[in-house]
Amino acid sequence: MKAKIKSAYLAPEGYQDQLVKELEGVTACHGRLILTDQQQIKPPFWTQNSWQNPILIPIQSISDAAKKLKALQRNWSLYSFQLHRRAQLIQEQLPHVSAKPLSFPASLPGSPMGSWTLLDRDTLLVASDCSSLFPNGEIQFAEDKKNPPNRAYLKLWEALTVARDYPRAGQFCIDVGASPGGWTWVLAKLGAEVCAIDRSPLDDRVTQMPGVHFQKRDAFSLSPDEFKESREKTDWLFSDLVCYPEKLYDWVRMWVESGACDNFICTLKFQGDGDYRMAQKFADISHSRVIHLFHNKHELTWVRLKSWEPSPVQS
Ligand SMILES: C[S@@+](CC[C@H](N)C(=O)[O-])C[C@H]1O[C@@H](n2cnc3c(N)ncnc32)[C@H](O)[C@@H]1O
């Protein structure tokens, strides 16, 4: 008898241990897919795709499996941890799902994406209700290999895509920990005005972009009062600072409480095993979520949008 499976979570590559530590009632680990016999009271941070209420479906053959999946919905992505050839043959009989990389800025896909795996030769584990609209939570973008100074722009593209919002032309953004300028490049390309702050300089090409103003200084010396005279609001505050999450938390709390800025996207960088209680403190700030992006490594991303309800939204 298989234990009742109430939810399953796909860990980001290399972060299974972090995910297992967060989950209640783990019954099995299949590669990066962790099964539990409980609905989680708190959604975990270290997940790339969460499968809610997965069901077991007995199958008699490859075509029987494909038929049963197609009867449930159109779009399916396979997570394969064993029986790879059999699983692939089933997936090939399912409707084609576009793998075209997104061109930023892009809307999220309109149709839901289900996930499935082969638990054994004759049993599918299937979830229609998944947190990500992308196969196994992997958002791929049409990359710009020429203009940005590094690849950090990809995680900001992903954060803004998942947030379903981005800075508009003429909005004012602060980007702390901005060097060499991947995030500032994204914001300036969107037509925003960017105050970029770092102790190290920006790449020259980014400094010269219209709307970019660079300040070489300690980001933590920046206070909301500084902009009071010159402008009514800061529309967005971005941080990719390499620093202790505790220090960042105190600093962003000051900004949130001042009411001087509407929207925040900050990476939370952890050392070693990390103290993920800090992640919960960020998640507890109203209108916030803490997520692990496909383009994040050993870091989480805190997103706070003024337009969000206090409850979490789907990625
Ligand atoms: C991961 S890099 C940022 C990459 C950047 N977001 C991009 O897209 O190119 C982190 C940056 O934080 C900066 N940094 C760390 N502590 C800082 C502080 N207290 N004040 C200003 N900059 C700081 C470092 O100099 C470094 O450039």
Descriptive overview:
With 315 residues, this protein is an alpha/beta fold. It folds into 2 domains: 7-137; 153-304, Vaccinia Virus protein VP39 (Rossmann fold, 3-Layer(aba) Sandwich), CATH 3.40.50.150. It has 8 helices and 16 strands. It has helices at residues 16-22, 62-72, 84-92, 153-163, 182-189, 204-207, 245-258, 277-283; strands at residues 7-10, 26-30, 33-36, 49-52, 55-58, 76-78, 114-120, 123-127, 129-130, 172-176, 193-198, 212-216, 234-239, 261-269, 288-291, 299-304. It has a 7-stranded mixed sheet with strand order 12-11-10-13-14-16-15, with helices on both faces. It has a 5-stranded antiparallel sheet with strand order 2-3-1-4-9, covered by helices on one side. Strand 2 and strand 3 (33-36) form a beta hairpin. The longest helix is centred in the last third of the chain and has 14 residues, at 245-258. It is elongated and about 70 Å long. The chain binds S-adenosylmethionine.
